Amino acid sequence: MLKMSNISKVYRTELVETHALRELDLHVEEGEFVAVTGPSGSGKTTFLNIAGLLESPSSGVYELDGEDVSQRNDKHRSRVRNEKIGFIFQSFNLIPDLSLADNVDVPLRYRGWSGQKRRKVIGEMLDLVGLGSRKDYLPSQLSGGQQQRVAIARALAGKPRFLLADEPTGNLDSEMASVVMNLLESINDEGTTIVMVTHDPDLAHRASRNIHILDGRASDLGSTGPANVTPLPERGVARV
Amino acid sequence: MKDIGPIFRALTRNKLGAMLIALQIALTLAIVTNAAYIISERAENIARPSGLDEANTALFITNLFDSNVDQRQLYRDDLDAIRSIPGVLAASPAQSIPISGSGWGEDLYNDPEMPSNESINFGNFMVDEHGLETFGLELVAGRNFRPEEVKVRSFDDMDLPDNLIVSQALADELFPDGDALDKTVWDEPNGERPMRIIGIYDHMQNAWPTSSNVNNTALLPSIAMFGGQMMYVVRSEPGQLQTVMTAVEEYLAGNRSRIVDIVRSYEEQKRRTYSGDIAMVKLLSVVIATLAGVTGLGIVGLAWFSVTQRQKQIGTRRALGATRKDIIGYFMVENWLITTAGLAIGLVGTLALNWFLDTQYEVGRVPLWYLPLGVVALWTLGLVAVLLPARRAANIPPALATRSV
Prior knowledge:
The structure holds 2 protein chains of 2 kinds. By secondary structure, chain A is α/β, with parallel strands linked by helices. Chain A has a single domain (about 30-55, about 75-225), classed as Rossmann fold (3-Layer(aba) Sandwich), CATH 3.40.50.300. In chain A, about 35% of the residues lie in helices and about 25% in strands. Chain A has 7 helices and 10 strands. In chain A, strands 6-7-8-3-9-10 form a 6-stranded mixed beta sheet, sandwiched between helices. In chain A, strands 2-1-4-5 form a 4-stranded antiparallel beta sheet, covered by helices on one side. In chain A, helix 3 packs across helix 4, helix 3 packs parallel to helix 5 and helix 4 packs across helix 5 (about 145-155). The longest helix of chain A is centred in the last third of the chain and has 16 residues, at about 175-190. Chain A is globular and about 50 Å long. The two termini of chain A are about 20 Å apart. Chain B has 2 domains: about 5-45 and about 275-400, no CATH class; about 65-255, no CATH class.
């Protein structure tokens, strides 16, 4: 599903060169729920950005769903993001002036689906996260947990095979965090591959596999989660 | 246009900034459309042909201060001298010239029974038998004056000449059937002071640029001797006007019994007459340019601020699959909606302002086709103005979505 080989990312300014990722190798199989952990500044967000095609690596090869997407042009990367990847952000990133339905609709409009199809999917997704009756609400009228559920509905609406979650419970209290995690687990149970960046070791333990990033290098901490983890032929490929 | 529904709904929830720009656009449309109409009206007025050979004509006004001088003889001597100056094509005495702002208006009757409130007004130009050639008019019917037909008109003798030559416009108004030549007309009601139309020339304006019947004019074979003022109109060979003006002025100034008050080319005279209109055209052009500039900058400012404020949102849209083109399109559509709302209000405002200007200052009614023209111009202005902020938005990287600020 996701295969990174020798991925490096260097940010250059006039004065300094920062190596955010160093020759990172990583392999995520279809259906896995992988938690990526690491301290602040370790390269987690850079990894997430490259995995989500939000940035290009400085070197190395990134294959998503069998396609080398490392250096594709902006338009192609936008299309891949829209069709194959769902994003869940730490601060939800809902658009404050849009209703919940219009928020869920954002990626679907870029997909070019018909209005009828979009309306059906929006209804289904908001029902899935338990907010079907509030589709005309604005995000500001919801609690943090509810907003993150809308963000999950938006991430799932385009039926992506791959979900990237950036600290999805970082801004939630423990009760809400648990609700969101349960939702993510059930989504994973349906077959969606999830890569989740988190600080929280408890949440990381609920994933099927943990990867630790430190100083831009990844180390595979192996399987930690429930029994539905797909056996990994290349387990432990992370290279320092 | 894929985002038009959500953009519209978002705008209705966040109205203030958009509303201010929409009102500015409305005001701009109302003012620019009315100003453009006034400019075109004035420019059209200025560009109307006077009928004269404008580039080669000059006027000279002198004032006699010696009351013992035989004015009639002085006219003869002056005209003989002026006509003999090299480069002079023709010269005539006159009491006024077209579009000078000062002249004589009289009424004509085409029937002795015609009631006085139906008489037809015209601009009267007193010239001699060289008047037609001096003014550069083309005789389209009839004949020119003969020297013996030219009368002196003064405070002692206000008798009108026996005949006159009229403009085609005046001939048509007096005799709509097209048979004005050789017809008798009267200068007073009840068949008083008859004159015969002996010729018709193509076109000449009267002295007043705002006159409603500016093309109703006539030449009367008369030499005006009211006080010591004497006026000559001189037409030069093409390109000789400056030389001729200098020579004529030198000749006129040589007579110590008078002073030369005015030596002026016709083009300069016309510029002076229209100086108010020319200033108005310039002022309104500056107003249009300034308003368009301020509105354009207002749109740029609002869109720029909006992009800065929504960087994270734009990054999120990019992360969710929006291409750069989608982001540019988003801002174009948003601006188009604001502009269109402003234009809708502006159309009403344009008509209201025009109604006010017309009732208060008689500027005339703006032709309706000005409205779509103004709308298209401001739509274009809006789209051009938003292009730069929209391109800036399109360059916001999708990775901004994952940043915490």
